[in-house]
Amino acid sequence: MRVFVTGGTGLIGSTVVAELLGNGHSVLALARSETSAAAVERAGAQPLRGGLADLDVLRSGVAESDGVIHLAFSNDFSSPEALAQGVAEEGAALAALGDALVGSDRPLVTVSGTPVAAGRPSTEDDPLPTDGPVGGRSVAVVRALGLASQGVRSSAVRLPRTVHNEGTGGFAGLLTNIARQSGVSGYPGDGAQRWPAVHALDAAVLFRLALEQAPAGTAWHAVADEGDAVRDIAGVIGRRLGLPVQSVPAETYGPLGPIFAADQPSSSARTREALGWEPKHPALLADLEKIQP
Is the CATH number 3.90.25 carried by domain 164-196+227-272+282-290? Predict the structure, then answer.
């Protein structure tokens, strides 16, 4: 299968591209710079120059492909305005990708976060929240899944709050960066809130399985660790960086503060059973031991 991938040079996207190429697929990857295009070529894929805002480029990528995996996002969390702009840009891009696939029966695999379920781990049947600072991303994914009724084999891989590799990535990676800058390895509240996690290499396998197998209109959980207490995550970060570990105000994390403070464990039991997905790489706390001081 020839697969058009957006976000193919990021932490997750680069592993997805390698997973696809290693399993007999070819890849056309969106590249917004010469540097990204060179990285795509080194990986063995073909670059398509453009960014998420270039909707005609996205449509041309769909036209050249047998399926699409959408991963790109601005990842600018510096202010509520920057985050809102990134959410709006992604929503327009995903709409363009989905509309270009209508009536083709080709797969579209998109991405969201795992939802929150009060008092228990969330499951694949729980709805995505459409409010809050990133609720617009859920709205776009729900719309994409709705294209199942219009001849698109759409599916969504729900990623946990931390997708990690070699001690970096995801919300745990943000905690590490903030700790380096502030001199404190912090956590909001009492730190008992739990974050699910997955190794990027395991997540990549699930994206491929969804592309190859997932029925239209379905959602899947790329969750290896159901939930690590945030104070335990901060504890490893603090020890590796030689910094004190303590509670800090949720406002420390800007627009992500309410999400960082929430208890959000998640399950992948149905995903594992239905798609045969089985994580094999190090869990989050073990992987964080690779943080360099």
Answer: yes
